[in-house]
Amino acid sequence: MQNRRYSLLIATVMSLTVSTGLAAAETAKFQGTVRIPVYNVPDSDFIDYSFGQMLEKAGYRVEFVKIDYTAHFTALEFGDVDLSPAVWGTSKDLIDKTLASGSVKNSGSLGVQTRESWWYPNYVGDLCPGLPDWKALKDPACIKALTTPNSDGKINYLGTPPDFAAYDDERIKALDLQVHITLPGTVGTMVATMQGAIQKKEPIIGWGMTPHWLYGSGQGKFVEFPLFDDKCPTDPSWGVNPNEVWDCALSTGEIVKLYNSEFAKKAPELLRILTNFKLTSDDVAKGISRQDIDGAPPEQAAKEWIDAHKEVWAKWLQ
């Protein structure tokens, strides 16, 4: 009987240890509000809401601040937002400038590789056989094959929402391309327009990115521009055009996580959680797909990931 009581006591202690491990992690130390930016961009918003909802599960107060993606770098510098878990490494010039301010630091990679560049459906490669080499876009026959009634005799190109740092105007000028740009208002419109063109087999080139359920699906390819170099955005003498900058692609890289350094002093445990936070390319692609294809809001897509992966994110809180 005594041994039985002893065994029950040990079992109870072990149970309490397991059950209180997460509870201890869920006891928030920072008592203020954590401000996280969201941009109405499906990939970043999925990541930002996933991180924020995880913090809410742990007992923190979170405010999601709607802001332009480019403007959010300045907001981080001035402490108007605290943490930014979804910064694409392709924004290298913006990241470098922000980090140089001294008020923002990088807590490392999310674990997701990224690419952003011009993208075309596979059938467009038949219309312009020199692709994916960018020089094919200078061929008169290719230009003619990729025009539409609304593209003014130029290549039909679907650009980015206005707040993207794509540098398309600069690239078109530097590489002397005959391109007509149509700017969508949002990423959702951009993707839907590309889908519509693919269904109709229309001649089109557009901005693409990975991870993404469409642009990473094998239905198309990226245009291969000259590889990015740190000198490309600032030194005209670098590259194929000695008189212009941005005669190259954007940099490839990873999604990184930035934070305001003054905020980190007040909430060091949140910096540790941010550093621990990781996702996969498949996680992000599925989160985008839930929004683009199924019409789910980013908050719902994030909640589904949080609900399905508690055993993963609970470890990041410990």
UniProtKB/TrEMBL annotation:
Look up keyword Signal and say if it applies: yes
Q: Does the keyword Nucleotide-binding apply?
A: no
Q: Which residues belong to any copy of the ABC-type glycine betaine transport system substrate-binding domain?
A: 33-307
Q: Which UniProt keyword terms apply here?
A: Signal
What the entry lists under InterPro entries is as follows:
ABC_Gly_betaine_transp_sub-bd
Which CDD domains does the UniProt record give? PBP2_BCP_2
Q: Which residues form the signal peptide?
A: 1-24
Q: Coiled-coil regions in this chain?
A: none
Please report the name of this protein according to its UniProt entry: ABC transporter substrate-binding protein
Origin species, per record, is: Rhizobium oryzicola
